[in-house]
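Quick one, T. Sequence first:
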Amino acid sequence: MQLEDEIKQAKFKTPFHKAALNISFTANWLAGTLLPVFKKYGISAEQFNVLRILKGQHPNPSPLQLITERMLNRMSNATRLVEKLRIHGYVTREICPENRRRVNILITEEGLALLDKISPEVEEAMNSQNCLTEQEVNTLNSLLDKLRS
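Structure tokens:
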């Protein structure tokens, strides 16, 4: 469906304005397709992102700063997200022995098991929305990378 129909707006100030709105609208639409999967497991998209970052570092600990730098949404409060994951038993927090001001985060076996369960469902939800060819996806990725550079 065209953006104009989705948001009931016929005109845009500039083509760039339309593109910016389209990117924002589409990002929210994609996030909405994943929301039921995350809700089923009682976590948020941001918490899922933190768990994937930690799994990528596993078995090494990750300082909070590394998590923040790698998050998709850098405006998220990583400290709060990690604490919620800790309460559920998906991560542990340890004071760094070399630098007591630094806190290291480790994913637990429960966190790894959750990712093993949820990841295929996330992949399936993402693939169900794919109506683009591989070439179109590559072009889209190149354009988005160019926009951010």
